[in-house]
Design goal:
Strands 10, 11, 12, 13, 14, 15, 16, 17 and 18 form a nine-stranded mixed β-sheet that branches. Strands 2, 4, 5, 7, 8 and 9 form a six-stranded mixed β-sheet that branches. It is built from two helices and 18 strands. By secondary structure, the chain is mostly beta strands.
């Protein structure tokens, strides 16, 4: 059968796609969390829902993944290449709304994810079929072995269920796949320097010079890419700033991107009205070149190996009332 939903991925970002919605946004504020933190967020949400009192007249049952399997090989240098996924999801009451899938590149340990909205507003209680997932270029088109490391499914009522790798494997399908790519450029983009444009932002004060624009955190990055020809140049960059307890994050994305060689780019991120007050620290940064090759920098403060103070004069922003 032909599924009514599909997945699409922009390098380093999440794009939700369906016949009713095609905007780069995520439910429940997930977009502002780095990929490796999203699983924690949805698991925390699922745990809170399990502990909450149930109303018999409302939908308090999370949806279920009943079958999940991916094809074994992806040829990334072919146009429109993607990863075929056979999946069945079901919900007893309000209907399945979205599905988020996580994968890991086994050689590098890099993790990423993507999400699909299912069916739009009139969501069905059961969906099954083949999806064409395109994680390959979002992971840099890097050849090698990958594995699906988790999945999260949510219904219209807001119930969430997370499946770890072992739980997906128990469904009996294939979770591993190989990527082949003749055009892979092994030279990743690099960060030369960075600068945050603000040290403090009031979440209730309009952006400077405007009457009602939401406040923003701005930044400037100097980046480089040693690739040559049509696949050279950084085409996407974004980073996350998070509270140290990882309860909230802020996504800062590129607004003016360089095309070739070393160059300066501008980024900005919106401070939401519900943003948690406090200090946000640079946590993770993602750089992608035109071939899809990527660089991921993770802060030592959040378990990584990058000291962002080597690149930035200041690495934190205070969000005030």
């Amino acid at each position: 059968m032909t599924p009514r939903f599909f997945w699409a991925l922009l390098p380093g970002t999440l794009l939700l796609a369906s016949s009713a919605l095609a905007a780069p946004m995520l439910p429940d504020g997930l977009q502002r969390f780095p990929p490796e933190m999203r699983a924690k967020v949805v698991q925390r949400l699922a745990a809170q829902q399990r502990q909450a009192p149930r109303n018999a007249s409302l939908d308090g049952t999370p949806p279920r993944i009943t079958a999940f399997s991916v094809e074994a090989t992806v040829v990334a240098h072919r146009q429109e290449s993607g990863l075929g996924v056979d999946i069945s999801v079901a919900d007893d009451w309000s209907g399945v709304k979205w599905l988020n899938v996580e994968w890991t590149h086994l050689d590098s340990g890099i993790r990423a994810d993507t999400m699909v909205f299912v069916g739009g507003a009139s969501t069905a209680r059961r969906e099954q079929g083949r999806l064409q997932l395109s994680p390959v270029w979002g992971m840099g088109g890097q050849p090698g072995s990958y594995v699906i490391s988790g999945a999260t499914v949510a219904d219209v009522a807001g119930n969430v269920a997370h499946y770890g790798q072992a739980e997906l494997a128990a469904l009996g399908g294939n979770l591993g796949f190989e990527v082949r790519n003749r055009l892979y450029d092994p030279r990743p983009p690099v960060l030369r320097a960075g600068r945050l444009g603000v040290s403090s932002v009031s979440r209730s004060t309009p952006w400077s010079g405007t009457a009602d624009a939401m406040p923003m955190v701005t930044a400037e990055l100097t980046v480089g890419d040693k690739g040559s020809g049509p696949l050279a140049g950084v085409v996407d960059a974004h980073f996350y700033m998070c509270t140290l307890d990882e309860t909230d994050c802020l996504l800062v994305i590129g607004t003016q991107l360089p095309r070739h060689g070393r160059s300066v780019m501008q980024l900005s991120g919106t401070v939401l009205p519900e943003q948690t007050l406090g200090t946000y620290h640079l946590a993770n940064m993602f750089l992608y070149d035109r071939s899809g090759n990527f660089t991921v920098l993770s802060s030592k403060r959040f378990g990584g190996d990058t000291d962002f103070s080597r690149y930035f004069p200041a690495t934190q922003v205070e969000i005030t009332p």
